[in-house]
Write a structure and sequence with these properties.
Elements lengths: L4 H7 L15 H10 L3 E5 L3 H10 L3 E4 L3 H4 L11 H13 L5 E5 L9 H13 L5 E3 L7 H9 L4 E6 L5 H4 L9 H17 L3 E5 L3 H10 L4 E4 L7 E4 L1 H4 L17 H17 L11
Parallel strand pairs: 1-2, 1-8, 2-3, 3-4, 4-5, 5-6, 6-7, 7-8
Helix pairs in contact: 3-5, 6-7, 7-9, 9-10
Length: about 290
């Protein structure tokens, strides 16, 4: 049975009324959103401070992405990040969250070796880090892994299209699914991932028409990033969306602010005040 409108309102209006009980977003919440035609929003997060801000704003889902390798660690790809590092950052994000669902990425080589090892590593993300679900990349080659993890009680989010862990295999970050053969394979993979037990699938950098076809076919939610408006939810890397990074500007990123310039200005003024002895003032001293 679907929840009443008042129940849904309570779960999606965290912080608007102290008398309302905060409800955690779960995989069931996202499924109900899809059934109702209600779009949901997702962002990446890697620390407690930003997670708390996003959670207070009302974000539905936070992904502790392996993009931490790029955003925090300064790597060119997501491949170097380790499972222990994802666990560390997921723990931090969990400390800042009251409502949003937190999904942890399974990094490169944490699930490819065998279904049993994948399950052990997924279990660490749940038990040690406190994640509500895990995400892994791929289609046909990970179906057995998805089924094993999901059947063991761990929610799994899939990821199709441009899969950054396969960047050396792809050779570029070009749009995937632009030719008929690849588009058909992505569509088949999406249906197979649903059958294997995925509760949602990220569709990255594929044609909007293909994403719409997948979204309308599946009963589980789709989450788009560079996949058009017809997905059930949308996700962005928060440093791209807030304009903190300036060396990565793909067409699918809408910048809602340019915080890099504002931070540079604030720090420059701080430096100037320190040099001129304008900071700290008498009022700012003990």
């Amino acid at each position: 049975m679907l929840p009443s409108q008042s129940d849904l309102d309570t779960s999606s209006t965290y912080g608007t009324s102290s008398s309302k009980r905060t409800k955690h977003v779960t995989r069931q919440t996202l499924l109900e959103y899809k059934q109702r035609g209600q779009r949901f929003s997702c962002l990446t997060a890697y620390d407690a401070t930003m997670a708390q801000i996003f959670d207070e704003a009302g974000i539905d889902l936070l992904l502790v992405g392996d993009s931490v390798a790029n955003v925090v660690q300064g790597h060119e790809t997501t491949i170097p990040v380790t499972l222990d590092e994802i666990i560390y950052h997921t723990k931090a994000v969990m400390r800042g969250v009251r409502r949003a669902m937190v999904v942890a990425d399974m990094p490169f080589m944490s699930y490819q070796i065998s279904p049993e090892e994948a399950f052990r590593n997924a279990g660490r993300l749940m038990k040690e880090a406190g994640a509500s679900a895990v995400k892994l990349e791929g289609g046909r080659r990970v179906l057995e892994i998805v089924a094993h993890i999901s059947d063991s009680g761990i929610p799994v989010m899939g990821h199709l299209g441009l899969t950054p862990q396969s960047i050396h295999q792809f050779g570029s970050y070009r749009t995937r699914g632009t030719d008929k053969h690849e588009a058909e394979q992505i569509f088949r993979d999406a249906r197979d991932l649903e059958r294997a037990g995925c509760f949602a699938i990220v569709l990255e950098k594929i044609p909007a028409t293909l994403a719409r076809q997948i979204t309308e076919t599946l009963t589980i939610p789709t989450i788009g990033i560079g996949a058009g408006v017809h997905c059930d939810g949308q996700i962005l890397v928060y440093t791209d969306m807030l304009g903190i990074t300036n060396d990565f500007q793909p067409r699918f990123v809408r910048r809602y602010d340019v915080l890099r310039e504002r931070i540079l200005d604030a720090v420059s003024r701080y430096i100037s005040d320190v040099r001129s002895a304008a900071f700290p003032s008498e009022e700012e001293s003990y």
